[in-house]
């Protein structure tokens, strides 16, 4: 009798511990048992990395598992980072995670060369190179390279790029050019004019980069002389107020109007002698008016009180004018009761 195959114990368990049948029948039973020999076990360990299982509990044929580097480690470019289940075994994978420096230091005066721009793996001893930015020029006495050190930090950079200088702005006629710091890339200058001149153009300019050089953003302005007409404009627009004595005294006779008119033509205030004369004339006029009023009142009262005449011919006049009674004697005229 031929010996039992290696799978005989499994077949005996399936048949409840009974002796297996002869080989032809045993072969038929083995063909009917579900095959589990294609599944792989757990993925192998990889230094400095962990498998991404995505919740899988079994790993059938053709299953692929990818690894992720631990914190502080970076995948080495060009190396495989996954395994494949094939014939109930995992494919071989080499160590692909290694220590690396971070992204190279960013410099304000230089930029990393394009050949390193997409790289993320910088092992110990790796060197990168820089090139000057616009507005800067290379200092050949200093190195433009940085190296990843043993502690996985970058070496300290030298300032191997220096600012370029804009040309001297020149002199501003009838004005001043104020240089606050220097004439290097990024600096600003300011313009002003002397008294009696006005600025025409930009009040400031800064040194900026253009192509492979630097220049001023604005040209020098001009200082133009302010003409007399321009100076007089504010004085014309400003109202002028002149005070005359007439605003301080009552109305005066028309004869004095010519006095004020003549003085106003002189665009000045009357002198003290003219004021004294004016006051004297005004006083004389007032006195004359008062005397005239007194005399007029006296004559009016005198005429109202009546008159006495002895002339014969005046009898009729006196009787008619004063409404007096007449007596027999023409000369005798008496006031009525």
From TrEMBL:
Signal sequence bounds: 1-38
Primary subcellular site in the record, as a coarse category: membrane
Functional summary from the UniProt entry: This protein recognizes C4b and C3b fragments that condense with cell-surface hydroxyl or amino groups when nascent C4b and C3b are locally generated during C4 and c3 activation. Interaction of daf with cell-associated C4b and C3b polypeptides interferes with their ability to catalyze the conversion of C2 and factor B to enzymatically active C2a and Bb and thereby prevents the formation of C4b2a and C3bBb, the amplification convertases of the complement cascade.
Compartments in which it is found: Membrane
Protein name (Swiss-Prot/TrEMBL): Sushi domain-containing protein
Phosphoprotein keyword on record: no
SMART domains from the UniProt entry: CCP (SM00032)
Record InterPro entries: SEZ6_CSMD_C4BPB_Regulators, Sushi/SCR/CCP_sf, Sushi_SCR_CCP_dom
PROSITE patterns referenced in this protein's UniProt entry, alphabetically: SUSHI (PS50923)
UniProt key word Electron transport: no
A Pfam family of this chain: Sushi
GO cellular component term, pick one: plasma membrane
Residues annotated as transmembrane: 280-300
Gene Ontology biological-process entries: complement activation, classical pathway; innate immune response; regulation of complement activation
Highest taxon in the source lineage: Eukaryota
Similarity comment: Belongs to the receptors of complement activation (RCA) family.
